[in-house]
Amino acid sequence: MPEKFKWCKFSEVDLNDDFFTPLKEDYEEFSDWFLKKRNLEENALVF
Question: Which domain of life is it from (predicted)?
Fold first, then answer.
């Protein structure tokens, strides 16, 4: 299963994807946190 995961920049991840809707609804600060990671050019492990 490791081949299903990959590293990418937060800037490559679409914050408007439906996957993030519950996170944004449950955690008011989620979008701010995500954008901070994007601005810092950090990496995310995605599936």
Answer: Archaea
Give the total number of structural domains in the chain.
Answer: 1
Which H, E and C letters describe the chain, residue by residue?
CHHHCEEEEHHHCCCCCHHHHHHHHHCCCHHHHHHHHHHCCCEEEEC
Residues 1-47: tens digit of each pLDDT: 567 999 999 999 999 999 999 999 999 999 999 999 999 999 999 98
Q: Which residues have a Cβ under 8 Å from the Cβ of 13 and sit 6 or more positions away? A: 44, 46
Q: Please, are residues 8 and 37 in contact by the beta-carbon 8 Å criterion?
A: no
Q: Which residue range forms the structural domain that includes residue 20? A: 2-46
